[in-house]
Amino acid sequence: MTTSVGSHRLPYEPTIPDPRRWWALVAVATAQLLIGLDSTIMNIALPSAQRSLEMSDPARQWVITIFALGYGGFLLLGGRMSDLMGRRRSLLIGLSGFALASAFGGAAVDPAMLLTARALQGIFGALVTPSVLGTLAVAFPRPAERGKAFGIYGTVLGSASGLGVALGGVLTDYLDWRWCMYVNLPLAIAAAAGVLYAVRPAPRAPGVRVDVIGALLATTGLMALVFGFAHAEPDGWSAPTSAGALVGGVLVLVAFVWVQRRSTGPLLPLRVVLDRRRGGSYLAVFSLATGMFAALFFLTFYLQDVLGYSPVMAGLGFLPLTGGLMLGVRLVSPLIARTPVRLLLAPGLLTITAGLALLGLVQVDSGYWLHVLPVFALVGLGTGWVLVTANSTATLGAGADTAVAGAMVQTSQQIGGSLGTALLGTIAGTSTADYLRAHPASAAAATVHGFNVAGLAAAGFLALATAAVFLIIGPSDVQRQNP
Hints:
Mean pLDDT: 82
CATH architecture of the largest domain: Up-down Bundle
Low-confidence stretches: 1-14
Distance between the termini: 18 Å
CATH topology of the largest domain: Growth Hormone, Chain: A
Number of domains: 2
Radius of gyration: 21 Å
Membrane topology: Multi-pass membrane protein
Organism: Nonomuraea helvata
Number of strands: 2
Subcellular location: Cell membrane
Number of helices: 18
Shape: globular
Pfam family, one: MFS_1
Protein name: MFS transporter
CATH class of the largest domain: Mainly Alpha
Helix content: over 70%
Strand order of the largest sheet: 1-2
Structural class: mainly alpha
């Protein structure tokens, strides 16, 4: 039994919808929720973990960055491994490894152990996500059900970040920061049980090979970029650790593109990103993550260190982000099938831009309800709006490239988040240091000034990215879906 999707025929995918497809949605959405929670659950726990493990400030930032880097750096390889091993097996291996890495991190006795666990979480998570998207794309081929399924998935995906922060605050305040890692164990078991019940084994995709050289080049290049941005603050932009890593990272990524053009089984077929709608969607997700992850990082410390919130109150303060995300998903889902892609992505990005601009106006004595809540609400609304559109656009008509095309959305998000946190963290740190030299007695004001400058820089970047996305996609028809 075969089906045609886009320009490829997939002999291993059914034409009749699986009767367990909605249970499969629950299972894979739980798996993705697990990974989404861990992208932010340690944010609120960072001050406590830093004190417990005697962690330096630069190492503190890497607790967030190394997860995003491991996840984003290996997602493309995870997409190919999903095709090679089968979606069901990839899900089970990924969930098992994620649970073990979480247990290892919860038992950490020093920063190196925690950072290793976070990196392993990201790597095993990268094996899960492509299989999640591949399962959804195959299980819901009909337009009406597809829109509903991706709307539910988008709600879970979008709300995970805000829920992660809130859950991290509750666990840190009432139990211990280590429970931000241990909580993954029951969630992973529940997701694995759902996969065993609802996701049927499928024959492996024919002719799939693992592009080992491409995987090494992509991961090395991305890691070098993040390393360079992270060291720009303490060492300076011209230092070998900064400039050398940045230049080296760019050269390695250029080599990656060269290899992909000549490979018979590329890790990332260039046709995936050269499609104008997909390419624009990837840029949109990369851009939103650059601003969103940095905003979450800054506001975590603003609420606790400046406003004096407890971890649980700071976590609950992030709930408007989740509310905004869910509203954005709900509003945009019915529009996807009948609205040009760029007319969906641009408003979402501009909404995030407005939220980041407001972050640039927050002061030491700003109140939560009038100054902080609007930032969360706007960033959440725009993020939910963009993510659902991008996920649906990326996997629609991708055929044999579905897993990799979907993985590129998460790759864009995680790499954008890691680079954004590193680069904007450097901008904030540099601005804070400059302010302190001029006003030595104003530590809190200096910290907030750094957040302001970084927020405005992120807003300016998002504004430019919006224009670029609009032009790259160009005038286009609405998403064409198979009847």
